[in-house]
Specification:
151 residues, alpha/beta, Nucleotidyltransferase, domain 5, 5-stranded mixed β-sheet, 5 strands
Length: 151
């Protein structure tokens, strides 16, 4: 890990989501799944050196049950609260926005984002649970570094 707070965080909210940290060159520093305890996720995040994060801005799915929607909303709020508590500046990005920017429009097929993440991070074990977080972190890195103009 480098000595300055110059890493970038991607947050794929939800019980099966994850957080991923990249350095300024796009190398993966660390990944944390959100199915761990809240204490473990906070302990992990507070040990990272992050200057900017992007949280995926998603809504409840049609026909999603009340319990699932509540759990999703809890995770979404927990992730935001952790970033505020850690003093990390963040923005939201819809799946359409970050997927278009990274040329991986999934249309709901998680294999598309997994394949794109594997191509960007060939030395990392990419699984469905961390693929989106890695891609959102790359979106955060490119956005913060001004590597493209956001639409």
């Amino acid at each position: 890990m480098n000595d300055q707070n110059e890493n970038y965080l991607g947050v794929d909210v939800g019980a099966s989501g994850a957080m991923a940290v990249l350095d300024p060159l796009g190398a993966v520093i660390s990944v944390q799944r959100l199915d761990a305890t809240q204490h473990d996720v906070w302990t992990w995040l507070s040990a990272q050196r992050v200057c900017f994060a992007v949280i995926e801005k998603v809504n409840a799915m049609p026909k999603q049950g009340v319990s699932s929607t509540f759990k999703f909303g809890t995770s979404f709020g927990f992730c935001q609260g952790m970033l505020v508590a850690a003093g990390i500046r963040f923005e939201f990005a819809t799946p359409q926005k970050w997927q278009k920017a990274l040329d991986c429009r999934t249309g709901g097929d998680k294999n598309v984002s997994k394949a794109r993440a594997q191509s960007l991070f060939p030395g990392v074990k990419v699984i469905h649970a961390n693929a989106d977080a890695l891609l959102i972190a790359e979106f955060a890195r490119r956005t913060a570094m001004g590597l493209w103009v956001s639409n």
